[in-house]
Structures are given as structure tokens and as C-alpha cells.
């Protein structure tokens, strides 16, 4: 049964939703939908001037959790507008039985850590201390998660191998606020990830393609050349995600470098608005229409080029840091996000970074993108426009051409949906941990499933061993009894017999005695007769204590002799009457009743009646 997975990119300019239908060992991208975030009434006056240096101040999310230009009230207002756009978009798509994956950018702190250990449990315990030492903040109020980059060679002498990790943390209150806002609109994400890592799952090669091309000598034949960069240029943030092949698992990828810069299309729109003294809405229209084309609108192009300088400078610095860490630059750079569609941006970045810069399209032979075989369609084919309303797209699968046209802007949303399909193979973090963990699908049981299965298997093995041992003991006891029966019957009858019922019947027949009756093997023991006599003794009567004390009792075949003392002669008569009513007692013969002196409970002498009974019994 297919399930629907929704990857949601809560962009500041537009909300994108990627819809993937996942079945057994298959997944299909069926739609990328987009809704514009309602704009706030903001006007950038022409009188506000900024120097090149102040306009160039790019804030790295790894050094500051949020942009200093936005207040908390503005962030809350933006988030409400994003959720409003998302609710309208989901109402048009009308997905059923969906699994929702969301990622956040604001408030996320990312760090690359080198640790002298590789055990995930130990790493999870050590990460808060490592981050606290670098960030100088109390991490008890932070949600921390990590994804593995690589594991080095084991240390000499049996030491644990070192490892590299991407660690991410976000304030606990931010996660609580996100969840409360989403749940109020009946949206419960299964995972909350980091937007900077969203595009990495796009380059994972599924196992079935790996096995199909196992004999291929070209390891990069199933995807683009690696290592590579994906630059997701959004409205307020630019995410740089470096993707490389997993060092030990073919087909999987890791993220050895990641950074988020708090600059994007918003700064470009503000620069155009200042240059033309326009409202932001009109400035965005000019930005999208002319871009960096100086022949069409020189003022707009110069304003955008000037606003891009700080971002380009940050990209150069990031490229230098990446090359110093990895030893080589990326082989190719892919652009995605809404701002990446700016005219002339690819050529500008290619000249500034001295690297090949291409639009991000689905990797070759991606099984989740249509049924394509062979190379990806050309950039010329991508540039053609296709107008299909959202209501129509909700009722049918998007054609591959429409998906390709929207893929560059919606790639992060597609990557988020794929991260749910690939699970632990995807280099992504999950901030839904601890008190925020997603429990509807009993994820906590699935996490502990190996331990539960191991416990059940061990329990079954122990139970099976105990049953086997008990059966073995019973077989040995049965064999011992069979041998004893054989020995006894041989000595008694002269021949071996193994049928216990037949032997018992034959013994009862041989022991038959007087009056033609049968004498059977006794079924009542002396202990049984003693118990019957004890129950037959009357209790105290009219408040007078019985004070029955049995002095002697002799049990013989067909006869029981009883000598005892009691409180009164009447009690002796009542006792004889009760004994005569027993099933095994044929008659009661009383002896003389004598008066004797006994010692009472208080130590004083009392009178007692001493008597004797001779019981004739019939029980064999």
C-alpha cells in the first residue's frame, strides 16, 4: 500500500511542498507545489542609505543563531504568514494519509566536530560538552542531534577510531513553539530537520540501482561528479551543503561541510527598492523581470550586483575554508532555491568562484523522478514555461516536464521527503527528540525493536531448553519405573509385564478373600482413618469444654483400639455415636468409663472421664 510523504520548505518568500508516493521498494515524485507567502506591508524609503560595508555584513548562522535585523515579533509574524500559506496549499492539494517532514533555518546552530571516538552512544553523550565549549551557552535548553561524516582508522593498541560529525542544535523553546503552531493547524511533522542539510538526500543511489550496476567500473556513473556543492539561495538564508561519497558505503553520501549565511533574495529586493524608491512588491517584480541584465535595466542590475557582493565574498571565504579542510575544491556547484532563478546569476557566480555552476536538476536515472533513462534534459528544455493550476495538479500526477521546471526551486522540499524514505542513510538531523519525539507510529518501539526481538528470541530459547530438559527427565523417570515394573512382575509372576493396569487388576483378583468378596489393595491408610476419627470428635457443648485427649491408639487390620480422656460421660456417649456413623466403622465397643484426675490449663487439678473404644473397621 502506497503512502504519501510531504516534504515542506517553509520559505520566507514562498512555501514549497514536494509530494512523493512511496510503495514497497519504490518511490515516485508526483508533484511540487508552491504558494506565495502573504507579504507584510513594508516600504523601504529612499532616504535610508547604507554604506557598502554595512550592507556587506553577512551573518553566518554558525556564529549567530538569527539575523540581528529581525525582531522576535517580525519572526513570529513571518511564521504565521508561512503557516497560513501552507494551510491554503494543503487545502488545495488535499493529501491523504500523509507523512510530513519539515526543516527550519532560523535558530539552528551547525558545527563540524572531530571526536576521538566513534561509538554513536558515546558521541551522543559527548556532543553537548563539545558544543558547550565552542558556543559558550547552556545546552540544557537546546535540542542536539548529529549526523556522521566519516570514521577514521582505529588507534594503535586497540584504541577507538576517531570520527567526524555534523552537529546541530536549536533552542528547545523554538521547537516547542514550532510544534504548537503546526499542531494548531492540524499539521504534525514526523521529523523536524535542518534546512542546510535538506538537499543532500537527492544524491543517494537506491540499493536496487547499486546492485544493478555493481559490476560497473565507473563509480560515479549513477550520479553527478563528487565532491560537489549545493547552494540553496532562499529569500532570507543561503545554505551551502557540501556532498561527498560515503567513505565505506557505496551509493550513500555524507555532508563533510555545511554553512548557512543570513543573506538571500530579501537583500536584493531591498537594494532594488532603494535604487528606485519603490515598494518592496514592485521591487521584487523588477528583480525577477530584469535580474542582472544591464541591457534591460541598468539601475536594477547594478543594485542587485552591489547587493550580491557581500554574499559572493562569504562564498569565497567558505570555498577557501572548505578547500583547506578537504584538500580540494568541489568539482561542481549546483544552485537551487527561488533566488537561483535570477537572470545572469549562474554566469556571475561561475566567474567569481572559478567553478562550474549549474542549476540543480534530478540526478541521472533517479528512480523517484519519472521513468527517465539516460541523461538529464538540457537547460534549454528546462527554461520553457508551463502553466498548470494547482487544483488540476492535485488531481493528477505532474508530468516530468512540469516537475523538471519546478525542481530547481523545490529541490530542498524534495530532499526533505527523500530523507524520510532513506531513513538513517540520509545525512539529516531530527530535532523531534525526547519530549518532542513523534509517538503516533510507536517510533520508540521501532527504535528498540532489535532489543525486544533479541529478548524474545532468548526467552524462547530458554523456554525451549527448559521444556527439553524436563522431557528428558520425565523420559528417564518413565524408563526407571518401567524397568522396576518389569523386575517386580518377573519376580512375582515369573514373566515380565509392562501394563500397569492389567497387573493391578490381577493382584486384586489374587487377593480376593471371605464371602466371595474381593480384597483389593488398601485404598485407605491409617492416616486417613485417624483424620476421619479426628473430624468425628464432637465439639464443646453448652459452653462446656470437651477436653478430649487421646492417650493411646492402636491401628490393626479390621480393628482400632482407642484410649482417651474427656470432660464428661455424656461427651463419651456422643463421641461413640459419631464414630459409629463413619463409613469405614462397622461397630463401636465401649469399655469402662473411669473418673481420673487431670491437670487443667491453669495448672489446677480437674476431674476427667477415661474411656476405651474398640472400633471394628471394614475398609481394606
Describe the protein's architecture and organization.
The protein is of the alpha+beta class and 620 residues long. The chain has three domains: 3-447, no CATH class; 456-516; 526-617, General secretion pathway protein M, EpsM (Gyrase A, domain 2, 2-Layer Sandwich). The protein is built from 17 helices and 18 strands. The protein has helices at residues 52-55, 72-93, 120-135, 172-184, 207-212, 265-276, 280-290, 298-326, 345-353, 379-383, 390-395, 400-422, 443-447, 449-493, 500-510, 526-536, 569-580, and strands at 3-10, 14-23, 26-36, 98-104, 109-115, 142-151, 163-171, 191-194, 228-233, 238-245, 253-261, 332-336, 357-359, 549-556, 559-566, 585-590, 594-599, 605-617. A five-stranded mixed sheet has the order 3-2-1-4-8, sandwiched between helices. It has a five-stranded mixed sheet with strand order 11-10-9-12-13. Helix 9 links the parallel strand 12 (332-336) and strand 13 (357-359). Helix 6 crosses helix 7 and helix 6 (265-276) packs antiparallel against helix 8 (298-326). The longest helix has 45 residues, at 449-493. The protein is elongated, with a radius of gyration of 45 Å. The two termini are 75 Å apart.
Counting DSSP H or I runs of 4 or more residues, the number of helices is 17
Q: What number of structural domains do the residues give?
A: 3
- The rough form would be described as elongated
Nearest-angstrom radius of gyration?
45 Å
Biggest sheet character: 5 strands, mixed
Structural class: alpha+beta
Helical amount: 25-40%
Beta-strand content estimate? 15-25%
Amino acid at each position: 500500500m502506497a503512502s504519501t510523504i510531504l516534504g515542506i520548505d517553509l520559505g520566507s518568500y514562498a512555501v514549497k511542498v514536494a509530494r512523493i508516493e512511496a510503495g514497497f521498494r519504490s518511490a515516485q515524485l508526483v508533484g511540487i507545489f508552491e504558494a506565495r507567502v502573504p507579504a507584510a506591508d513594508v516600504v523601504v524609503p529612499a532616504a535610508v542609505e547604507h554604506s557598502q560595508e554595512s550592507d556587506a555584513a553577512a551573518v553566518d548562522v554558525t556564529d549567530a543563531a538569527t539575523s540581528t535585523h529581525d525582531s522576535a515579533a517580525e519572526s513570529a509574524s513571518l511564521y504565521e504568514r508561512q503557516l497560513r500559506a501552507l494551510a491554503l496549499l494543503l487545502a488545495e492539494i488535499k493529501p491523504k494519509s500523509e507523512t510530513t517532514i519539515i526543516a527550519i533555518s532560523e535558530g539552528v546552530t551547525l558545527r563540524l566536530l572531530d571526536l576521538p571516538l566513534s561509538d554513536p552512544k558515546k558521541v551522543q553523550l559527548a556532543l553537548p560538552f563539545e558544543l558547550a565549549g565552542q558556543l559558550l551557552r547552556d545546552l540544557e535548553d537546546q535540542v542536539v542531534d548529529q549526523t556522521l561524516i566519516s570514521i577514521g582508522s582505529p588507534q594503535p593498541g586497540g584504541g577507538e577510531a576517531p570520527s567526524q560529525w555534523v552537529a546541530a542544535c536549536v533552542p528547545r523553546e523554538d521547537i516547542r513553539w514550532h510544534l504548537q503552531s503546526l499542531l494548531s493547524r492540524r499539521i504534525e511533522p514526523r521529523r523536524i530537520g535542518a534546512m542546510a542539510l535538506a538537499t543532500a538526500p537527492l544524491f543517494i543511489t537506491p540499493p536496487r540501482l547499486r546492485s544493478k550496476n555493481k559490476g560497473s567500473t565507473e563509480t560515479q556513473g549513477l550520479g553527478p561528479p563528487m565532491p560537489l556543492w549545493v547552494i540553496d539561495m532562499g529569500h532570507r538564508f543561503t545554505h551551502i551543503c557540501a556532498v561527498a561519497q560515503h567513505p565505506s558505503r557505496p551509493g550513500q553520501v555524507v555532508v563533510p561541510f555545511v554553512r548557512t549565511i543570513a543573506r538571500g533574495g530579501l537583500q536584493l529586493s531591498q537594494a532594488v527598492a532603494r535604487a528606485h524608491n519603490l515598494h518592496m512588491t514592485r521591487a521584487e517584480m523588477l528583480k525577477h523581470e530584469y535580474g542582472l541584465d544591464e541591457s534591460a535595466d541598468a539601475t536594477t542590475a547594478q543594485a542587485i550586483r552591489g547587493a550580491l557582493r557581500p554574499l559572493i565574498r562569504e562564498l569565497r571565504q567558505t570555498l577557501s575554508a572548505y578547500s583547506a579542510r578537504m584538500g580540494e575544491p568541489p568539482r561542481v556547484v549546483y544552485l537551487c532555491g527561488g533566488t537561483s532563478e535570477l537572470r545572469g546569476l549562474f554566469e556571475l557566480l561561475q566567474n567569481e568562484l572559478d567553478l562550474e555552476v549549474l542549476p540543480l536538476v534530478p540526478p541521472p536515472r533517479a528512480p523517484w523522478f519519472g521513468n527517465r533513462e539516460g541523461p538529464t534534459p538540457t537547460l534549454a528544455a528546462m527554461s520553457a514555461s508551463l502553466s498548470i493550476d494547482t487544483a488540476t495538479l492535485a488531481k493528477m500526477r505532474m508530468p516530468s516536464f512540469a516537475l523538471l521546471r519546478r525542481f530547481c526551486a523545490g529541490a530542498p522540499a524534495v530532499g526533505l521527503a527523500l530523507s524520510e524514505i532513506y531513513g538513517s542513510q540520509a545525512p539529516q538531523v531530527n530535532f523531534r527528540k525526547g519530549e518532542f519525539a513523534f509517538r503516533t507510529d510507536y517510533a520508540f518501539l521501532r527504535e528498540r525493536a532489535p532489543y525486544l526481538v533479541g529478548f524474545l528470541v532468548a526467552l524462547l530459547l530458554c523456554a525451549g531448553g527448559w521444556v527439553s530438559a524436563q522431557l528428558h527427565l520425565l523420559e528417564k523417570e518413565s524408563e526407571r519405573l518401567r524397568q522396576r515394573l518389569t523386575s517386580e512382575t518377573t519376580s512375582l509372576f515369573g514373566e515380565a509385564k509392562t501394563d500397569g493396569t492389567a497387573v493391578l487388576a490381577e493382584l486384586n483378583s489374587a487377593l480376593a478373600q471371605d464371602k466371595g468378596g474381593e480384597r483389593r489393595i488398601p485404598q485407605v491408610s491409617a492416616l486417613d482413618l485417624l483424620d476421619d476419627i479426628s473430624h468425628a470428635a464432637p465439639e464443646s457443648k453448652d459452653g462446656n469444654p470437651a477436653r478430649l485427649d487421646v492417650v493411646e491408639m492402636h491401628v490393626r487390620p479390621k480393628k482400632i483400639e482407642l484410649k482417651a480422656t474427656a470432660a464428661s460421660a455424656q461427651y463419651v456417649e456422643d463421641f461413640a455415636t459419631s464414630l459409629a456413623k463413619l463409613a469405614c466403622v462397622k461397630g463401636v465397643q465401649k469399655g469402662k468409663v473411669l473418673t481420673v484426675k487431670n491437670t487443667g490449663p491453669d495448672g489446677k487439678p480437674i476431674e476427667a472421664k477415661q474411656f476405651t473404644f474398640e472400633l471394628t473397621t471394614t475398609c481394606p
